[in-house]
């Protein structure tokens, strides 16, 4: 028979849970509804834990969301840009892969449509401006990565000397963000693939006699 102290300790012990599974469920909820409209009670219900366990494990809703975003960034959906830039031998091949994979992934019915980082904080109140800034900084960091890859391509002669890497990076970032929103609005993979090919048609070409 347990003593009183042992009973109290047992009852007070937080219920064990699978952190990865809980993060996956929170990810889906934030992805579907966005940060602002997802409540702590909805999160704990989906994750199968009590509010106290959420706060003990993650700190608060904002900290949980940031962990969700970082985990998403390591997934196939969230990490498609970095994978393409690291694995493809040329900038053109990398950018084409990013757009084509986005066209396939964003409308995939196995998860919410679009990109979590692009859409999760489109409408936030002033009290959650920290989250909006957090996601904005991530998107701007991605823009910088695209710009740097284009600058390197220009230095290596892949892009013509009169190309504008900054404008190109902004153009492709806008295309990717637009594809995410189109997917959330119901566009299918075929429509997004057409958009991806149209976007790649803007890739700068060398003039006559210049190396391709």
From TrEMBL:
Keywords: DNA-binding, Transcription, Transcription regulation. It comes from the Bacteria. PROSITE patterns: HTH_TETR_2 (PS50977). Residues 39-58 bind DNA. One of its GO terms (molecular function) is DNA binding. Residues 16-76 form the HTH tetR-type domain. PANTHER family: HTH-TYPE TRANSCRIPTIONAL REGULATOR YJDC (PTHR47506:SF1), TRANSCRIPTIONAL REGULATORY PROTEIN (PTHR47506). This is TetR/AcrR family transcriptional regulator. It comes from Nonomuraea zeae.
């Amino acid at each position: 028979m347990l003593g009183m102290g042992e009973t109290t300790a047992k009852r007070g012990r937080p219920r064990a849970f699978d952190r990865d599974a809980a993060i996956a469920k929170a990810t889906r909820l934030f992805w579907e509804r966005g940060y602002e409209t997802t409540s702590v009670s909805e999160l704990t219900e989906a994750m199968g834990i009590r509010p106290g366990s959420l706060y003990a494990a993650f700190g608060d809703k904002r900290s949980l969301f940031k962990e969700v975003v970082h985990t998403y960034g390591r997934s196939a959906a969230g990490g498609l840009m970095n994978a393409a830039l690291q694995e493809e031998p040329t900038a053109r091949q990398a950018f084409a892969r990013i757009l084509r994979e986005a066209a396939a992934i964003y409308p995939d019915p196995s998860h919410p449509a679009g990109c979590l980082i692009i859409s999760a904080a489109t409408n936030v109140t002033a009290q959650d401006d920290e989250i909006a800034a957090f996601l904005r900084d991530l998107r701007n960091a991605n823009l910088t990565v695209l710009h740097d890859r284009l600058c390197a391509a220009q230095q290596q002669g892949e892009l013509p000397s009169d190309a504008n890497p900054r404008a190109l990076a902004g153009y492709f970032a806008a295309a990717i963000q637009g594809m995410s929103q189109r997917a959330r609005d119901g566009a299918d993979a075929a429509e997004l693939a057409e958009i991806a090919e149209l976007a790649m048609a803007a890739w700068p070409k060398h003039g006559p006699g210049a190396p391709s």
